[in-house]
Amino acid sequence: MLRNSLAALMLLASTSHAAETVNIYNWTDYIAPDTLKNFEVATGFKTTYETFETNEALNAKLLAGHSGHDVVFPSIHFMGRQIQNGLLKTLDKRQLPNWKNLNPVLLKALEGSDPGNQHG
Hints:
Layout: H1 2-13, E1 21-27, H2 35-43, E2 46-52, H3 55-64, E3 71-72, H4 76-84, H5 104-110
Parallel strand pairs: 1-2, 1-3
Helix pairs in contact: 1-2
């Protein structure tokens, strides 16, 4: 899981050409303590990191609009509704050269909520 989190962050860094900071909203205790530092060293991007404890907290923040977060980590059973409500942007996979490094089993599981892995 931790490896996938770092891979996801590295994928998304390539989408923020103009931004020097990646704003992340994630579950509490979801990544290893050194993940953000490793990401910053590997990409040159700074990070801001906020956490949430429930799906409802994430959903409320997204529904309020303009959350300011570049990367969020929804649960699979909330992701479909968030996509239907237009809360998650479509990924431009041409801008994600590390997409090929993501776990295919995880991507297959996400397809139930996100056909074609268009959002995550």
